[in-house]
C-alpha cells in the first residue's frame, strides 16, 4: 500500500472504526519492507490510543501470527481495500457468539469448492452456484470476524514449509485457514455467512498485487486447493454451511 492509498484508507475507514464501540482496538499490520507509513500516518498513530502498528514484519503466510499482539477473543480482519460499518461489525459479533469457533463473514464472501469425480481433484471456486451442488465452501478472510483462538491454532498447526510457500506465492492463506477451521469444528464447517440488510461492507481500490489482477487467478486458486489437500490429506474439505444468519437493519 503506497502513501496515498494508506492515507485514504486511514481517513475513510480507520477513523470510522475508531468511533465504533464494539472495536476494542485497531491493530494495523504493515507488511511493506520498502515503504514505511507516511509522516501523516505516523502522527495519527501517535495521537490515538485505539490504533497502533503491530510490531515486527510478517508476510501473507504468517499474517495470522499477529495474534500474539491481540487480547480479545474475536478478531475482525480487513484487508487494505476492505472495511465494515460499525453496525455490520456488531452483527458479525452477534453471529460469532452463536457460532464461536467459525469464520463469520458476509454472504458475498462465500466461495464454492467442487470435487472432480473422475480425477478426485478439487476445483475452485465460483461465488455463484453451478447447476450441481458444491462439495464444499469457504469464507474469504479478506473481510471477516474470526475467533482469535483459531489464529493461534494456525500458528501451531501449520508447518513452516507451507507458510514459506504462501509467502512466496501470495496466495492460499485464506483457504488454509478455512481448512483448519473445518478440521477443528465437529461438523467440519468452517464458515457462517451473514446477510445484512443495511449493506455495511466497503470495497476500496485494490493494490497492484491483488490476486484477481494476476493471470490465471482461478487456476492458481484451484492449485491451492489441491496443494492443501495433498499436504493435509486427513483434514476434511470444509462443508457447505448448515446455517445462514440474517440481520435486519431497523433504522
Describe this structure in words.
With 251 residues, this protein is α/β, with parallel strands linked by helices. It has a single domain, classed as Alpha-Beta Complex (Spore Coat Polysaccharide Biosynthesis Protein SpsA, Chain A). It is 33% helix and 20% strand. The protein has a 3-stranded parallel sheet. It has a 3-stranded antiparallel sheet with strand order 7-6-8. Strands 1-2 form a two-stranded parallel ribbon. The model has no long low-confidence stretch (mean pLDDT 84).
Brief write-up:
With 251 residues, the protein is of the alpha/beta class.
- As a whole number of angstroms, the C-alpha radius of gyration is 18 Å
**Number of helical segments?**
7
Q: Give the full name of the CATH homologous superfamily.
A: Spore Coat Polysaccharide Biosynthesis Protein SpsA, Chain A
Helical content stands at 25-40%
Sheet with most strands: strand arrangement: 5-10-12
CATH class: Alpha Beta
CATH architecture: Alpha-Beta Complex
Q: What is the number of E strands?
A: 12
Mean pLDDT, to the nearest integer, reads 84
User: What's the shape?
Assistant: globular
SSE class: alpha/beta
Question: What is the element string, with H for helices and E for strands?
Answer: HEHEEEHEEEEEHHHEEHE
Major pleated sheet? 3 strands, parallel
CATH topology-level fold name: Spore Coat Polysaccharide Biosynthesis Protein SpsA, Chain A
End-to-end Cα distance, whole Å, is 35 Å
* Number of spatially distinct domains: 1
Strand content: 15-25%
Segments where pLDDT lies below 50 for 5+ residues? none
Amino acid at each position: 500500500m503506497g502513501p496515498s492509498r494508506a492515507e485514504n484508507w486511514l481517513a475513510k475507514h480507520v477513523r470510522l472504526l475508531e468511533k465504533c464501540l464494539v472495536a476494542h482496538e485497531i491493530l494495523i499490520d504493515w507488511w511493506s519492507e520498502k515503504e514505511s507509513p507516511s509522516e501523516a500516518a505516523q502522527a495519527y498513530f501517535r495521537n490515538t490510543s485505539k490504533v497502533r502498528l503491530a510490531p515486527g514484519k510478517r508476510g501473507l503466510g504468517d499474517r495470522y501470527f499477529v495474534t500474539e499482539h491481540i487480547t480479545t477473543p474475536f478478531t475482525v480482519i480487513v484487508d487494505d481495500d476492505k472495511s465494515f460499518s460499525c453496525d455490520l461489525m456488531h452483527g458479525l459479533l452477534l453471529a460469532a457468539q452463536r457460532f464461536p469457533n467459525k469464520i463469520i463473514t458476509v454472504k458475498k464472501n462465500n466461495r464454492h469448492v467442487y470435487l472432480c469425480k473422475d480425477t478426485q481433484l478439487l476445483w475452485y471456486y465460483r461465488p455463484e452456484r453451478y447447476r450441481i451442488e458444491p462439495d464444499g465452501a469457504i469464507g474469504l478472510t479478506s473481510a471477516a470476524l474470526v475467533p482469535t483462538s483459531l489464529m493461534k491454532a494456525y500458528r501451531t498447526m501449520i508447518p513452516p514449509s507451507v507458510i514459506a510457500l504462501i509467502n512466496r506465492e501470495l496466495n492460499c492463506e485464506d483457504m488454509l485457514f478455512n481448512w483448519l477451521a473445518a478440521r477443528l469444528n465437529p461438523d467440519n464447517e468452517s464458515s457462517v455467512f451473514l446477510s445484512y440488510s443495511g449493506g455495511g461492507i466497503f470495497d476500496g481500490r485494490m493494490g497492484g498485487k491483488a490476486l484477481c489482477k494476476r493471470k490465471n487467478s482461478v487456476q492458481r486458486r484451484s492449485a491451492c486447493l489441491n496443494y492443501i489437500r495433498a499436504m493435509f490429506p486427513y483434514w476434511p474439505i470444509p462443508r457447505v454451511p448448515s446455517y445462514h444468519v440474517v440481520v435486519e437493519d431497523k433504522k
